[in-house]
Amino acid sequence: MSVCPDTASIPPLGKGDNLHQQVLASFPLCQLTEEDLAQNPLFCNLLVALSNHVDHTGLTVALKKDLEKTDRDLQAQRLSWLQSESLYRLLQEMIQDHCVRKHRSGTSSEDDKFYDTLERCLLVAQCVRQLDPSSSTTQDQPLLLGLSAQHVLDLMPPEQDVRRMKQRLLMELEGHLKKKCFNILAYYQPDWEDESEGLKNSKLSRLPENLESESKRADALKEKARDSAAQLQRQTHCYLSEVMGCIQILQSLILDYRLKAQRELDRKKVEYLEAKCQIVCCKIRAEMLRLQVDTYTTEKISAHRVIRNKLDTELKAIRAEKQTAESTLSSFEILGQEFEALVEQYSQLRLEIENKRWALKEFSRHSH
Predict the structure, then answer these.
(1) Upper half-sphere CA count for residue 102 (Cβ side, 13 Å)
(2) Average pLDDT over residues 123-139
(3) Contacts of 32 (CB under 8 A, 6+ apart)
(4) Which residue, among 195, 118, 199, 223, has the nearest Cα to 162 in the 3D structure?
(5) What is the CA radius of gyration of the chain?
(6) Please, where are the H alpha helices in the chain?
(7) pLDDT tens-place string over residues 159-200
(8) How far is Cα 273 from Cα 262, in angstroms, rounded to an integer?
(9) What is the model's pTM?
């Protein structure tokens, strides 16, 4: 690629928005917007400079010319191959049609001779092309099955039959081509099928021009579709950018209002739970009262009062007895260690007395 000239010497494509639009049109494959070009003027100038050296696909001018020349050569080679291949397939179709007619309704000996000669010539030509690689490579290759092209050429039909076949071939080929052209014309415009042969020939002569014009129109529509696709891609990029901005704004709004609403919602929820808790406590208290009412009737309460009075009286008597015992015990504790020894001796005597009473009782019971 040639060196990029100074940006000051670059002729401006336009001014303002027009410049940006032309730059975007020159580079439809770039993911750019007019806002990007406006924010980066130096990059915009670089794209303007590059637009003088590359096309919309990114190829340089020199490479584009070489590519076009190569494409023309390729098209010429394709056309040459297509002509020979079309002629070969057309001759094969003619031979197949003859075989079908021969099996259906029979054919004349002259037709059989003509097509047999044609088929042998095609077969020999095909074998010669397979055995002679000189047209596709300069290297010597081993012979296939020990055969050479001359061996196959010896299998050609007699020269007289070949000459007769060539004299008739052009007429037969023209008729077959004419029939196929009429079929193509009927497919292209089905309403022309019932017209006269002269009118068909007239329309058939204009068919290549019509097909070429439609091909150009299809190419123009494809180019327009590519431009529309590039424009749609740019618009989609801008649309997605705007949508992302809107989503961010919505997220901030949702977050802000959600926090405010959440605080109020929490307060309402606390109030609701407090009221519900109070109601539950009231229900529990009511159930407890109901259970007490069902459990303690008037008769049971009277009996409980009598029992309580009796228990209170006994409790007072026991407390008085306890107090008396404690005062007696305290008076005994004044005597000290000697009293404890007497108490222990007294306890042993009491225990022995009880044991002897029990033994005497058991002895008296068994003696009877």
Answers:
(1) 15
(2) 66
(3) 23, 24, 234
(4) 118
(5) 61
(6) 17-26, 34-39, 41-50, 61-104, 109-131, 149-153, 159-188, 197-295, 298-333, 337-367
(7) 888 888 888 888 888 888 888 877 777 777 776 666 666 776
(8) 16
(9) 0.41
